[in-house]
Amino acid sequence: MGALAIAAHNIYVLRSFAIAPFAVVTAFLLGYGALSVLLLRRHPGAAWAFHVGDLAVCTVVVYASGAEHSWLFAFLLIPVWNQTHTNAKRAAVSGVLATLFYLAMLLFVRVVEERPLATSLIIFRTIMIAIVTTYCVTSAIIVQRSRRRFTVALTDAQRDALENAATLTALNRLTQAVTMTPEVAPMLDTAAGEMLTLFNASGCMIALIDEKQDALEIVACRATRPVPSAVFGLRIPFTEGAACAIVTRTRRPLIVPEAQTSPMLEATRDALRALSAQSVLVAPIITHSDVIGTINIHTDDPRRRFTDEEAMLATTAAAQVAAPIRNARLYDAERRARLLNERLQQAGREITESLDLNETLERIMVNLRGVLDFDAGSIQLLEGDAMRVLAVHGHSQDEVGRVRDLATHGYNRRLATSPEPVILHLPEADDIWPYDIDFAAVRTVLGLPLIVHNKIIGAMSIDSHKQDAYDQKDAEAAMAFARVAAVAVDHARLYTSVREMSMLDPLTGIPNRRYFDDRLDNEWRRAARNRTPFSVMMIDVDHFKAYNDHHGHAAGDVVLQRVAAALQGALQRATDFVARYGGEEFVAVLPATNLAIATTHAERLRRRIENLAIQHGHSSASTVVTVSIGVATAVAGSADAASLMIAADQQLYSAKRAGRNGVAAAAVVSQESTSSRPALEA
How far is CA 338 from CA 120, 129, 329, 382, in A? Predict the structure, then answer.
């Protein structure tokens, strides 16, 4: 509505007309303007028609006012000016129409009314219209471009706002996810899964720096493809030029576009190929100014490359999980310490329940498994300049009783002289590891000195077939157990020593019948668990009553002492023992010994006594003191100890019946009881 805009002015211009024409023109202008407003509200599409009408009305007003008034032509420019803030096309069309209407009016004045018009004036007015039109078109172009730039900027801002909102939502979800659980493993697995969504990636691996601070260990991995089991626990060393080394040193994210060929990812090459990774983004996980690990995000799309903005986002995401990881580690360490303390308390109660040394040693080995996992182990006690093995678990029982000289065994010497635990990684430590092919499968050894009142009394040694099975934390936990075990061993050893003194025969100095009964029961139960052969010897001095009668009891006591010493000195293993059974009878126990070996050993004992050459002039077996030996062997568990003793007693009777100074042996195949031996002259 140009008519409304210029109506008042036009009325002022036409004030010199007659009243009637003036009223008619005024009414026409006002009516046209009002009609334009009403119709355009209902029919917005007719705007161009009314725009042309505006130009026509303005032309009529200029004509009615007299073309000779040069300033009136400016009314034609009002509709053109109205298009300045619309668009350049409309402004240009309006200018062209205004020029055509103006020229048509001048042509009508000159041709029809034959009024003279100055050519220069016409040209000037036409130029003015063109100038104004050009200005309006230029202004419209500027406005249009400004609107377009504003629209683009607004669209970009809206898109960035949406992306930022989505990123903030994803980061918030990541934060919530990693704070939902206090345990390290599930928390890291959840974090890796959230990273896939946050970066629209194909996989995410989270690696933490290990205890030795010399490598990263992959502890969590999520991917859109199946993850190889070898990925978990994979170690990434800090080699020169490696991506992890660069990131931990610079504390800045790193983008590696060619993941499968880049030398910076050599340690994870196989894993990345299995996951078809093409581009990798590595960001540091930093807490309290320390780098504790890295987040490794990858994509399997060869066309995609991570951007610097994504690298910064990865740094932010890593910061979100850093504190929860630290808290989870603290929680995990506290939980492990609590469990270890509970296990140590339970182990201490179980270990100290018994004062029997053998049972205590056995309980120590059983309870140690609750603290650490191992394949084999042993307990040794210090004896002068050597270590004696008293108990084994997972090793051959032949190791029991073996003595190792500290001068020739570097490993044992270190345990006997240092209060610190010893960790050996084989085969690197072969120079101080004294054992041969029997220990070929051992890859990691943990040695624990047993210390009581700041004095080393022995050591525990546990072996694993796994490489790098134990670290410093394992050693600290095991040492806490070793301190409890050392006290228990010391008490049991002291008790056993006092108890054994009460169980020694005062005449011969060897164990008495009471010791024999207790020891036989323990050894038999131990052999029954392993279903091993078990041998017993009943030994009787031939015609000892006759010797006493002719030489006196004092001389007879000397004979018993010399026979006991010879029998005791013939023992070859710590598990073997001999005891005075009663009067002139002795008994020897040989665990884990079959009938053939026991018989050979009995014959050696018989000759050893005969070679003492103690004169006996009243024996039908020999001119010197001799013994008769009955040997019985059974598989522990298939018979009982009582049957074995009866069988040995029967074999002793057989040896005597055969003329004495001999050995008789038999195997026990059932638990059937046999009658006791008949009376026979001693």
Answer: 108, 94, 14, 33
